[in-house]
Amino acid sequence: MWIDTHCHLDAAEFASQADEVARAAAIRQVGMIVIPAVERGNFDEVARLAHAHANCSYALGIHPIYVPQAQESDLQVLRECVAQAMADPRFVAIGEIGLDFFVPLLTEPAMRDKQEHFYIEQLKIARDFDLPVLLHVRRSQDQILKQLRRIKVVGGIAHAFNGSFQQAQVFIDLGFKLGFGGAMTFTRALQIRRLATDLPLESIVLETDAPDISPAWLHPQRNSPEQLPRIGETLAELRGEDSAVIARRTSDNARAVMPRLQALL
Q1: How many domains in the chain?
Q2: Residue 124 has pLDDT above 90, yes or no
């Protein structure tokens, strides 16, 4: 069994095909898909999708790319929704949250400040409810880590990790797993492939970030969670391991970092 720790099944690219996509993934032995929210407006939809399929669960959060249009009141709504969702076994984490210093608009001083405010406040929600976080860390590893040292959460996943070995070790020391997906399948992605090869296997989880970050054999077409086993085979090849070992170990890692998954699997 495989676990896709990060898939935006509610995205417009899947439109009316989300149910078909989840079923196709199940046929490929993807036993769980974690669907993170990105804004207040899709909290209900990610929960609905998670309840529509036995192999789906969800997280609630406000993505940094959606921070420009977010309102301060959204943070209170998030806290209230999390409090209600704690009784829902399919709710497993806070996410997708974090910082993005790649998109030009988000690097402007006022928007950097707003991003950091939303990130900090969502870390506090995770801390208060003892929940792991699914982190967006694009060109922002050090700033993400600065707040994680200050606001202690139980851990989580650094999604689509592409930092240094030193940064990876700090995440690991703070109780985090590192997410690897389609980018790892490109032979030119030397740093990501080195990380995937040399980091301790107990620190790695797999993801698709579908419909984004398509693997080499699909690019530039839409990604989907049914690609996860083949992505996992790439990891197995890089590490000289059997794919069954990679499936078991990365799934164990996902369950360890998101303990609420245990009741679903």
Answers
A1: 1
A2: yes
